[in-house]
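Q: I have 556 residues here and want to know how they pack in 3D. Can you give me a structure?
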Amino acid sequence: MKTDIEIAQQTPMLPIAEVAERFGIDSDYLEFYGKYKAKISDTLFEKTKNCPDAKLVLVTAVNPTPAGEGKTTTTIGLAQGLNKIGVKTIVALREPSLGPCMGVKGGAAGGGYSQVVPMEDINLHFTGDIHAITTAHNLLSAMIDNHLQHGNSLGIDPKNIVWKRAMDMNDRALRNIVSGLGGKMNGVPREESFMISVASEIMAIICLSEDIRDLKNRLGKIIIGYSYDGEPITAADLKADGAMCALLKDALKPNLVQTLEHTPAIIHGGPFANIAHGCNSIKATKLAMKLADVVITEAGFGADLGAEKFFDIKCRKAGLKPDAVVLVATLRSLKFNGGIKKEDLSKPNLEAAAKGFANLEKHIENLRKYNVPVIVALNAFAEDTIDEIVYISNKCAENGAEFALSEVWAKGGEGGKALADKLIKVLNENKSDFKPLYDEKLPIKEKIEIICKEIYGADSVDYTSKAESEIKRIEKMGLDKVPVCIAKTQYSLSDNPQLLGKPQGFSVSIKEIRLSAGAGFIVALAGDIMTMPGLPKSPAAENIDVDENGKITGLF
């Protein structure tokens, strides 16, 4: 069997100018990064602003399992399937981070015959957006320490600096460090820490900014810490916002690539959903909606994280009203949630699939709370049995969700036609009445508890004294009337990765609260979630190589 990278390397690509031309995009609106990648000029936004909006469809999934659910693969394959049946469709995706690519998860460009290409470029440096975000982030860090070194006229309390440094790699050794050692000329010694770049507030800002003016305004609002008097200090106070914006001016532009079947793919922004808000940029989604009849987008990890944040943060901020949601599951994932070990997931086991259906059932219930039609896409594997498939289909119908089988990994767009047909039927026969889950003007604790109880199924929420004091400080500043972004494990509906299926009788522990004033939301850290992941014992990087001709291998 061919690997994903072998399939991608052996499938001919079209010049990106030709892909764009097929969708009415003149090459004058493209800024080329070689033959197969391009950034989209802001002039195209202006040209298309009066065009009607496409139908917007979110693809999400059950909680991820070691077997993999194929959410991105389904997103790409569905877009290809829609184009196969004559529906003008663009896919809008996030950019992969180098952290998971070199760590345990591998690449994030789809799989099989439903991939975006050039997959090596997309998974590695792409057009440099994440590098630009990392640089802008660390420029602000450098300017903070420089300000301390040269007199500290703003009165920044070195023990109350909340702005961390960033790096787009899993490096646990940088979670907690001491900087400024080596004498007076080398800075002010203080405790410091790193986060992975995709968790940076700047990544969230890029994804939520409408234009460069909005970007600069949001950058200026970033709170880097507090003065000795307890007053917030911002990036604008340090006069860092202009230079940061200059570093990010090209990163703000969405990137255009293609799928294996030459469907246009706009890829832009890459926040994780377990520690950030998990959606691609507003600019990319809105532009795609002006260029097609249907736009397929995705949100990270399970629906309890990615979909909730897509609906309650991105759609709220952008004024988007999604028309349908596709919920991806596999029989393997249901069996895993039913208590079966990874090595036995390929064996027929209707009893385990029925038990594990509780996880899928909870996600259907959650998504229906947003008043958006739900379609369950069962990502097919060769060992799936008819009895198992029929059982899941019937259970989905009982829970008010449509059902379709997806074979996009093996068959590309052809394998996505059944799902595409079902989606068009749903779009034609059901009208979305989308609304967010909560009012953002509610008190912080009330918003957190609505998410934890309604989406996760928790009985209660506990707060550390540190979280309590941070909530009081945010409320005192009057910056509490914004959405909440909960950072928790992706592996469970709860904040405990060991609780599979549909856990009950648990409490969510909120350990820390962080204000992302520039992005416009509050981050609540639950359980043992970390913003700087670590590499596993045998990282994926060990299998990646390049030959003397520059051909990359081992990248998934």
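Q: Anything worth noting?
A: The mean pLDDT is 95. The longest strand covers residues 507-516.
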